[in-house]
# Entry
Amino acid sequence: MNPQAIQIENHLIGPGHPVFIIAEIGVNHNGDKDLAKRTIEAAAKAGADCVKFQTWRTEEFMADRDLEYEYASEGGLVKEKMYDMFKRLELPLQWHQELFDHARSLGLVPLTSVADPLSTDAALEAGAKALKLASEDLINLPLLEYVVTKDVPLILSTGMADETEIKDALDIMKRFNALSRTIFLHCVSLYPTQDDEANLLRMEAIQEITGCITGYSDHTMGPEACIGAVALGACVLEKHFTLDKGLPGPDHAMSADPDELVVIVKAVRRMEAMLGQKTLDIPPREQEFRHVFRRSVVAAHALQKGARLAATDIVLKRPGSGLRAREMPKLLGRVLNRDVAADSQIAWEMFETS
# Structure
């Protein structure tokens, strides 16, 4: 049974509804509010449904201030202390309202990943209608217990999480009766993720374990994983997004730029149309071709009135507007009430009634 759709602002998210496409600006604002606004504008122009940032206080989650991190930036490798990097890329709490309002003015849903109670409250005060937890915080059970009490939709990424850790988060959602408003995203926390690490089928395993709406947070290069995830049933798609891959910072090089996001959005919408519905119904245009491309029962040679039809008297030829092959056994042994020319379609009215 498919989970019920979840509403975030004016978007219904779930099976049978358009994929909710999140442009993950994340830290790609580089601490520059004008850059953040211009990136929001580019996401709207590319066709995204949502823009998402990341909100934290570096002192709250970094204990070792000497821990180093190496990343690709501006065509080379940069190594710096994690504390310094995160501190530089914090999203000031006072920016939230202005950035959220700007996103909404462009028809986008504004969201941010929250990392602690203070950032959670800041996001909600700025008008966030859902909360996102990044992969590293799926095991932050006190934070999960805090955000689940806020009675808004929750989006939980599962990068680095094993089955036990996913089930721990699931238990909290169950305990607070929040499963019906929870979305789990398959995610691989490698930047970038290689093709043989993407493991898109894990999304199906997550759906089976949780019973919740599922989606995919992508860190691969290119659009292929996003399209594949949608084909496998992703209801939410998150892709890192930058105004310019050449900007300095840890995520720009592996993010989609505006041209790439346009390709992804168009491909996803096309895939949605291709997926159709889980039904055996035949499309109307294809039904028209049945009469042309299929075969129907015709006389194998000239037949005379009074002849009793034998298997050698009929064959199957185009067009398919006459009797179908499954009717052939019912025709055998019947007596013709008229002459029938070779290759003429056989019809029930050609036989004597008993």
Notes: The chain has two domains: 13-275, 284-350.
